[in-house]
Amino acid sequence: MNNLKQQLKRHWGLWLTLLVVLVGLVGVGLTRLDAPWYQQTVASVTKVQANQHNQTTDEFNNTDVSYSQWVTVRILNHHHQGQTYRLKNTYTKSGAMDQAYRVGDQVFVRIPKDKASAVTIQGLKRDTALAFVAWLALALLLLIMRFSGLMALLSVTLNAVLFYAAIQIDLMTNGGHLYTLFGSLAVIFAVLTLWLVLGVSRQMLVTLGATITGTGIAVIISLIVFAATKERGVTYEAMQYVTQVPRPLFLVETVLGSLGAVMDESTDIVASLFQLRQERPDISANQVFKSGLQIGRSIMGPLINVLFLIFMADTFAMTLLYLRNGNNWGYTFSMNMSLGMVQSLISGIGIVLAIPVASWLASRLMPRKVGAA
Amino acid sequence: MSTISVLGIVLFILMTLIGGKTGVTAFLSLIFNFGLLFLAVVLISWGFPAMGVSLVIGTIILAFTIFFGEDNEMAAKTAYIAALIVMVALILVIFPVEHWIMAQGFSLEDSEDLEGMSLTIGVSFVGVAVTEAILSTLGAIAEASIAIAAGLSEIIDQHPHVSASRLYIDGISIGKQIIGTTFNTLFFGFFGGFLALFIWFSGLHYSFGSVINNKIFVAEVLMVLFSLIGVILTVPITTWVMTLEHRHATKQED
């Protein structure tokens, strides 16, 4: 009996993890049944019949194939529930804005009030697939990190809530106070995230100082460069999904985008330096500073590449479309990739500057005896 | 001079001042990676299959990022092998998911940018979505595998006869710290960049249901999740490769 209790105690973490993972998987399955919760009409594809296809050629000699199919759907919610419709779907082989539907897909449909107009498919219901990938990520996180992974998750959730709140405030003020709003948000993000990771300590304050100073100087340098070069080649007009003045939006996006990376790096450097002081209490401030640079040196390259690849990969589809529509490389680059490039460069400057700032702050502000405190 | 070149020069000077030789090579890897990314788009636009292009370009990008950033040869080699294994594992996840979720190409929100463009270009946009997803995860994978391999090779240097199981525990504990902070890099990197889109969603009163099924939103969240899965997988795989290398090295010594 005692033995069993001990066994349970030793393995409760594992069992709890497995339980959470299994419950999560059931939750993913349940999204197949969530149609009643949607305002939109949801239907399930029960039968698909290929109709005809023909080759198309556009003005740039791109050949494509356009298909049409008959799709039979059964409505899953609201007052048309249970009824079936047969409708025509046309799609292309490349599928830039359309797609083929398959039996078992759940889709959003629009049923017009007057009987004469046709029922149309609005788009695929993607929540099950999305939930599955989210479940996969969380399950792996819990299995490998157990419950210390939850702390990271908590910080991301809190940040997402703050982000949402800031957007609501921004909309209420019509984007009038964008800099103040998102500037303070960036500081709050940094304080909250570092507080959750490090608790309130001198180490946290040093990391916070390095993050804010590094990012701040990078912004100032960039603004000076912007002014000196009169922002030549920065194509704000190519920014996507813009509903407010693009320039401030772009700068705010850049600062927020690099914030996580600068925090990541400052955390690493400051933590290693505090540990170094603990191991060798008599080390001089200058040596601490030098070790900080040494650590930062090996982190900065990969970290800048992380952001660079994230910023650039997004632009792929549009870049491809530009190239296939007869635009030359230069124009295609400036309309699609130049903003991501500017973003990467400013972030890179922030990441590099945070190294000496973090090392210097740590070397001056570290207490003489970390272990004694 | 254009803003991009001046910012580039500033970054180069700073990296050289602070990073010395490592800084210069890191800057070079950035330029090579840009060239490779652009090459990837051009190759796909010439009709090469997206899957093959992402495999080849991905392998080269990982090599540039890892070998240009890390001086320790054993750590770099381990990191590279591990990163390649993770990339292949991720492709096995990304490929079926992208074909299931169909979040490729463009959405109604893009209409204004697409005016006057021909969309029937004969290139599979699902393939392009796979390429985007794979390439966007490579940076995070490379960073994590370097950090773990470097940490472990330092442990091996100090305790040459460390046991494989001990090494595994150390690898996971280094990984825990890395995952925590990398979470932030990814979260801010992706969502900071999509502020405009979220303002659009909120401003036009999209319902929660339409946001989580929206093509662009789904594509974006998928990239974050794939990167996260990549980083999480990197931890045990890098540690495993390191223990194999270590066992191999000690055997040769005997």
UniProtKB/TrEMBL annotation, chain A:
Coiled coil location: none
Keyword Nucleotidyltransferase set for record: no
Query: What UniProt keywords are attached to this protein's entry?
Result: Membrane, Transmembrane, Transmembrane helix
Transmembrane region positions?
A: 12-30, 133-166, 178-198, 204-229, 303-323, 343-362
Protein name, UniProt field: YibE/F family protein
Can you name the source organism?
Answer: Lactiplantibacillus daowaiensis
Automatic annotation (TrEMBL), chain B:
Say which domain of life the source belongs to.
Bacteria
Q: What keywords sit in the KW lines?
A: Membrane, Transmembrane, Transmembrane helix
Name the InterPro entries for this protein: UCP031503_TM, YibE_F
A family per Pfam: YibE_F
Q: List the transmembrane segments.
A: 36-67, 79-97, 117-135, 183-201, 221-242
Q: Which PANTHER family match?
A: MEMBRANE PROTEIN (PTHR41771:SF1), MEMBRANE PROTEIN-RELATED (PTHR41771)
User: What name is this protein filed under?
Assistant: YibE/F family protein
Organism lineage string: Bacteria, Bacillati, Bacillota, Bacilli, Lactobacillales
